[in-house]
Amino acid sequence: MGHDRAIVRCCDCRRWAGGLVPGGVLARSGLGVLVVENESGFRDRIRGELSFPWGHSEALRAGLGEPLQQLGVVPLPEMGLYEKGRRVDGLARGLISIDGLPAIGFSHPRLQEVLLGWAESRGAFVLRPAKVVGVGDGQGATVSVLGGGTLSEYRARLVVGADGKTSGVRRWLQAETVTDPEHHRFGGLLLSGAHWVDTFGWASTPENVVGWFLNGADWCRFYIRLTAQRIHETGVGRSIEAFIAFAAEAVPEGSSTARTLPDHSVSSQAAARGPATSPVGRWSSWETRRARWTRPRASAPRCSSGTYAC
């Protein structure tokens, strides 16, 4: 299948929905765009579910107002700073936002679904579930895609691989990945019934950080940031109950969120099985955070078209 005058978008949308935005924007401009998605359905992971005001502004500038409205984002106009369950300071986002826009919270899996549908509605051709199994160069870039038991090859002037830290595109490009030592880890939990005000809560000490915010009408996301050693010392990663008990220390007493936390737990057996779901909670495993970037090797082949990994 030829796309000689087209842009082909190869993305693994699990990593971040940024793989979908350029596809929709380019398709909207009239270019031929192919989006390849490996998952038939997105699930909850430890991914950014909050956009600060400048990101909110850039999304609107890119023409994403319609999908953001469909997504049902939660405005977070203020950041509240807490110590030992007590608010000590706050910052109104409008005071530091050029456009006066608030930060926004949202469900990441729903964001992915909405943006995938939006890109398709703008003219992008979507293959799902399908997997990119190779990228090559010759008379233009080529992409090999396996879907429905059939291997197909597509040609394009530009291939962009948004497939995360284990990027296959980087490997096919023979690019070098440079990684700093591990700095800290994030753990995430999504709770229903834990109602909260329209504030991004942030409780920070030299040893750990707890953050929480609404990402839906009835859902509140909690993140805990610790070093690997502190995770071991506190036992916070052993079960959902341990996670909830640790987070509850940071939440203001008397808030509905604090009252909900001790009651809305999921069994440790569910946590042991990995990412679990229940009517009241969704558990996301710990994610290592470290600086990572890519640079081409001197011996890497040069594509006559453009091929990029991000």
Task: Outline the structure in words.
By secondary structure, the protein is an alpha/beta fold. It folds into two domains: 126 residues, FAD/NAD(P)-binding domain (3-Layer(bba) Sandwich), CATH 3.50.50; 106 residues. It is 22% helix and 37% strand. It has nine helices and 20 strands. A hairpin with a 2-residue loop joins strand 5 and strand 6. Helix 1 packs parallel to helix 4 and helix 3 packs across helix 4. The longest helix has 14 residues.
Taken as a percent bin, the fraction of beta residues is: 35-45%
The number of distinct structural domains comes to 2
- Which class of secondary structure composition applies to the elements? alpha/beta
Q: By CATH's scheme, which homologous superfamily of the largest domain applies?
A: FAD/NAD(P)-binding domain
Rough shape?
A: globular
- The fold-level CATH name of the largest domain is FAD/NAD(P)-binding domain
DSSP summary: helix tally:
9
CATH architecture name of the largest domain: 3-Layer(bba) Sandwich
Low-pLDDT parts are: 1-16, 262-281, 300-310
Rg? 21 Å
First-last Cα distance: 25 Å
Tell me about the largest β-sheet: 7 strands, mixed
Give the fraction of residues assigned to helices. 10-25%
Spatial arrangement of strands, main beta sheet: 6-5-15-16-17-14-18
Number of strands: 20
- Under the CATH scheme, which class of the largest domain? Alpha Beta
Q: What is the string of helix and strand elements? A: EHEEHHEEEEHEEEEEHEEEEEHHHHEEE
